[in-house]
Amino acid sequence: MNYYLGRGVPGSQLMMGFPLYGRGFKLQDPSKHAPYDPSNGPMDGCPYSEEPGFCGYNELCERIFGQSGWTDVHDGDMQAIYSYKGSNWIGWDDLNIVKLKLDYLKSIGVGGAMLWSIDTDDFRGLCGPKYAIANLIWSELNGAADSEGRE
């Protein structure tokens, strides 16, 4: 965002993207799980998307949060979260990270936000309220939404 704003693109013409998925890898050494540690390629695909190295937020709620043994790490320097279990490592955005990004978006005055993609939000409410990320983005940018996602 700063790159474009610094080169004269009006903030009103910019949108910040919010991924509703995580990207995962197989660690070369399970004891080395920090960002940028070596990997052996993507982790196995999640049950619905089946794409190696990709898990929708809804799949994360089911696969990662629904199973024991996963460790979450909130990296304060990167303002990011990642989780690992054995040789599996995945980076993703939780509600706290989304809120930080929204605060940044509002502070620099860009035009808005977009999600990719709505079908991978937590539509079952396994991690909290249904469509928690979409509703958080909506309410932060437009005011409170009702239970159906409307203002």
Automatic annotation (TrEMBL):
GO cellular component annotations of the record: extracellular region
Every GH18 domain range: 1-144
UniProt keyword Transport, yes or no: no
This protein's record includes keyword Disulfide bond: yes
SUPFAM superfamilies cross-referenced by the UniProt entry: (Trans)glycosidases, Chitinase insertion domain
Example of a GO MF term: chitin binding
GO biological process: carbohydrate metabolic process; chitin catabolic process
Keywords: Disulfide bond
InterPro entries xref list: Chitinase_insertion_sf, GH, Glyco_hydro18_cat, Glycosyl_Hydrlase_18
Domain of life per record: Eukaryota
Name of protein: Putative chitinase 10
Source organism of this protein record: Amphibalanus amphitrite
Gene transcribed to yield this protein: Cht10_6
